């Protein structure tokens, strides 16, 4: 009888472990994105709430950007899926983790690295007044864009195009996954913003803190997405990137 109970307990523990493994991503470091030594290709799973898909040109721009900095000889691809709206006016970082738990189906294995992008119709819970958050990195392989907020600040009079704003946010948040700035990819020369940690102190750089907030709108009216400055590029190259 005792032996049967022990076998049952072991089986239940193994089952629980399997269920956890189903949605939990393995430990991923910025070098895994940048280098081709361990992972040869990258699959980006984009899950978007109905009405807030990324523009096809945004997807193309993101892949082009990543190809210019990542060593992924077997390529980079995006797979997208639509889901029902959450119905929430605001979501938090904790909510994003639960959403990933619910919807993520692509996980890193073998020579394939994966990332998860959620495009939400809700606003971010940490918005403050007229200062709106457009995107966040919330994990080693997870980022979110706040689609409704992006739509509110793009495509209209004296606003950048939606593609430009989506692209800027997506590239900025992936920059964080790559360890910029001073967040898993070491700085060759000091260029971190002392007030806004993990962001570049060059206001013309893609990794400047304003790029992920509504404060960037006035700088995108020429419909040009900011690029990484030389300091950020050198950091990536030193950590296995191009």
How is this structure best described in words?
With 242 residues, this protein is α/β, with parallel strands linked by helices. The chain has a single domain (27-238), classed as Collagenase (Catalytic Domain) (3-Layer(aba) Sandwich). The chain is built from seven helices and seven strands; from the N terminus they run ααβαββαββββααα. The chain has helices spanning 2-23, 30-34, 56-69, 93-103, 147-152, 162-177, 230-238; strands spanning 41-49, 76-83, 90-91, 112-120, 123-124, 135-137, 142-146. Strands 2-1-4-7-6 form a five-stranded mixed β-sheet, sandwiched between helices. A two-stranded parallel sheet has the order 3-5. Helix 3 packs parallel to helix 6. The protein is globular, with a radius of gyration of 19 Å.
Give the secondary structure arrangement, pairings included:
Layout: H1 2-23, H2 30-34, E1 41-49, H3 56-69, E2 76-83, E3 90-91, H4 93-103, E4 112-120, E5 123-124, E6 135-137, E7 142-146, H5 147-152, H6 162-177, H7 230-238
Parallel strand pairs: 1-2, 1-4, 3-5, 4-7
Antiparallel strand pairs: 6-7
